[in-house]
# Entry
Amino acid sequence: MIDRPCSALTAPTNGALSPPGPYSYQNQVTVTCNSGYKLNGVSPVTCKADGTWSNPIPTCTRTSGQCSALSAPTNGARTPPTGANFFGNTVTFTCNAGFVRNGAATVTCQSDGTWTNHVPTCRQIDTCSLNPCRNGGTCIDQDSGFQCACPAGYEGDRCQTERPIFGVGAVVGIAVGCLLGGMLLVGAVTLLILRCRSAKKKEHGIAEAVYEDVRTPGRAVSQRSETGSDVYSYPMAPLPVPPLPSQPSGHYQELRPAVYQSLQRHQQTTPQPQSSTGDRSAFTISHDFST
# Structure
């Protein structure tokens, strides 16, 4: 009798064959099922001499063990996001940035319907415990890490960079302000000097006019002496001069005290004329009106 080869076998859904073939008389094939599935049938199966198998190829069906549905931890995620809660299924957990996992990274559904581990938790990382902020900066915990509140004069992620309190714009503004203030001050001082000089010239003009009215009906000739005094020459005869009042009054009050006293001294030292036909002469009164 000639042995005949057996027909090729196909692995059951959610299962596998070993060895994969081809098969001949007395070859055995083992059938296994994937995790979460159980074998329904006989394994292994044997190739007979007539080219048939000793038993039908078994099937794989999901086990009756089903675990409770799992949710992702707070501030974390699970992979796959849903399902995978039957016997043999595995779920993986991760935490968001700024958080650390507290517990197992993976859990597996067991045949009795329980998970191998509890769902882990995600605890926020206390990044400020290491005092990352420098130069007196204040550390603020955040979900994605930390933030440093820097004091005046410092900047950067960790307050590590020193910066000037006044920026370039502020320095330029202060310089321009000082320049304008200085220009205004110079202008004010110049205006004050001009006003003082104008008032002084006006005062001198009044005194000269009054003195001229008192002493002579003509106009005095003014010149500057070598000593810096103003010299006034009056071409007039030494006629009797009416006495000056003991106290200035009227337009005499407009004279400076020094001018008034000079007039008094001149009246005392001027000789009286002998006759009305005497020679006409000139006399000079010197007074410094610049004081």
